[in-house]
């Protein structure tokens, strides 16, 4: 019998989270507040007035959460380090209790046979650094490299894969251009500067790693394939701009050492002439690329949509998630192939992929039926398998997310977890999707054709 879906033996099956979304206790044990702590406590910023003060209480429950990961058979866990826990002011004085937390987390993962995959920055910039200009201050490349070096020195003996940044596009687009995410700015001139300094910080951290690190380091980006709503020249050009803005802006800079030509058209006078030496700093060889994939968008020209002049057209026949995203697994295969063709044979990890759907209440037998999420997972894993069959070097998959958590300014209203969290009692209940994923892992992918409810 032929096995239709079989992943490589060493394929890294994992799940992902981030610090502010799950840890809670954001200022415990000497930690400095982050811009997310500040933003979430600013009235009117968060759905239902939610904040990350408790979240999934993972800071205090990490041991039982790791036991649960083990139960599900996870081989790897992608988490982020809260910069302000280890450096309360972002620079200078080290908070040993914060460092100890991540050391205990890593040791606990290893003792359960789970590979740790930390991300150094998943959006929770120390507020003290924001007071000094945050991502608008060029010095942040050095601040970040110093913080990264501290973590490398502490944990590189036990951590085989590091990521510098998670999704620089979201940091800039939400945080500096549209104001929907921390630090809540809305400024055309700031956006290119913030992106550029994020990328410089990435480059400086990779350089620092080459001096002291022994393993692998990469960058995590979110890529959304952009399709044209029609073949009209205006829609085609709008689609190119949308792609340059969200996708190529970061990857061309980090992997090719240049920005796409469309950037000057999009930002006009707000697009600076960057020094060549900056691009050289950004363009560091990396060991892998992390791809976060959720959806695609179909674009048409729209002068009202500032500054890209492209707006997304809703797809009426598609399944749409609770965050309004079209379920489009083909886009994952296409993106993996596109990455290989455009940027060469860099090892790839799908570092995030998942869906928010309405979940029914936990049944008495301790079950949560989430057939749409099961189907999402199944179809996207198949999409990865198709890419593997076409020669793309995909090394692992991290389901977003292990736990229902704080979905940024949506608060707790959007549930992405494989594991249901009751935020009143902190009870964890693996959903059907978690059970399904456990079977996929155990079979190395063979059960991907199993019918879903
Ligand atoms: C982010 C996560 C977020 C997820 C779902 C990604 O953009 O890295 O933090 O929760 O998507 O929106």
- Helical run tally: 15
Helix content: 25-40%
* Helix vs. strand class: alpha/beta
Element-by-element helix/strand order: EHHHEHHEHHEHHEEHHHEEEHEHEEEH
Overall 3D form = globular
Task: Please state the CA-atom Rg, rounded to the nearest Å.
Answer: 21 Å
Describe it for me?
The chain is globular. It is an alpha/beta fold and 453 residues long. A hairpin with an 8-residue loop joins strand 8 and strand 9. It has helices at residues 19-22, 35-40, 58-72, 83-86, 96-111, 127-130, 140-155, 168-177, 190-212, 233-256, 262-267, 276-282, 330-343, 371-389, 432-443; strands at residues 12-16, 76-80, 115-121, 161-166, 216-222, 226-228, 288-292, 297-301, 310-312, 348-352, 394-400, 419-422, 427-430. The relative contact order is 0.14. The mean pLDDT is 97. Helix 3 packs parallel to helix 5 (96-111). The protein contains 15 helices and 13 strands. An 8-stranded parallel barrel has the order 1-2-3-4-5-7-10-11, surrounded by 5 helices. The longest helix has 24 residues, at 233-256. The protein binds beta-D-glucopyranose (BGC). Beta-D-glucopyranose binds next to loops. Beta-D-glucopyranose (BGC) binds at residues 18, 21, 166-167, 170, 222, 292, 352, 400, 407, 416.
């Amino acid at each position: 019998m032929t096995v239709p879906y079989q992943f490589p033996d060493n394929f890294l099956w994992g799940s992902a989270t981030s610090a502010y979304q799950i840890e809670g206790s954001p200022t415990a044990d000497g930690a400095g507040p982050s811009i997310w702590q500040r933003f979430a406590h600013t009235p009117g910023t968060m759905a239902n007035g939610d904040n990350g003060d408790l979240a999934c209480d993972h800071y205090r429950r990490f041991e039982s959460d790791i036991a649960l990961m083990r139960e599900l058979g996870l081989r790897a866990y992608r988490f982020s380090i809260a910069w302000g826990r280890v450096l309360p002011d972002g620079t200078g004085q080290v908070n040993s209790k914060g460092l100890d937390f991540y050391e205990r987390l890593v040791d606990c993962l290893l003792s359960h046979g789970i590979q740790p995959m930390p991300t150094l920055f998943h959006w929770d910039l120390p507020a003290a650094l924001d007071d000094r200009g945050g991502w608008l201050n060029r010095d942040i490349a050095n601040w970040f490299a110093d913080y990264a070096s501290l973590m490398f020195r502490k944990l590189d003996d036990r951590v085989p894969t590091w990521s510098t940044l998670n999704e620089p596009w979201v940091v800039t687009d939400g945080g500096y251009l549209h104001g929907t995410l921390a630090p809540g700015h809305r400024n055309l001139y700031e956006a290119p500067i913030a992106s550029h300094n994020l990328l410089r910080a990435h480059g400086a951290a990779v350089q620092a790693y080459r001096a002291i690190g022994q393993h692998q380091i990469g960058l995590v980006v979110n890529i959304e394939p952009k399709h044209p709503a029609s073949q009209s020249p205006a829609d085609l050009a709008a689609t190119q701009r949308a792609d340059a803005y969200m996708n190529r802006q970061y990857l061309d800079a980090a992997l090719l050492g240049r920005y796409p030509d469309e950037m000057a058209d999009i930002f006009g006078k707000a697009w600076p002439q960057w020094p060549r030496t900056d691009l050289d700093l950004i363009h560091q060889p990396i060991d892998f690329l992390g791809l976060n994939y959720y959806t695609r968008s179909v674009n048409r020209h729209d002068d009202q949509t500032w500054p890209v002049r492209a707006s997304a057209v809703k797809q009426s026949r598609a399944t749409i998630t609770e965050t309004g995203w079209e379920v489009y697994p083909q886009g994952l295969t296409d993106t993996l192939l596109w990455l290989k063709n455009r940027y060469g044979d860099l090892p790839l990890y799908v570092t995030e992929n998942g869906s928010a759907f309405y979940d029914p209440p936990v049944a008495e037998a301790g079950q949560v039926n989430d057939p749409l999420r099961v189907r999402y997972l199944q179809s996207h894993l198949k999409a990865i398998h198709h890419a593997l069959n076409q020669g793309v070097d995909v090394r692992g998959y991290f389901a977003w997310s292990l736990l229902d958590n704080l979905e940024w300014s949506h608060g707790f209203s959007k549930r992405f977890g494989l594991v249901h969290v009751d935020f009143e009692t902190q009870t964890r209940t693996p959903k059907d999707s978690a059970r399904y994923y456990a079977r996929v892992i155990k079979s190395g992918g063979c059960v991907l054709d199993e019918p879903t409810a």
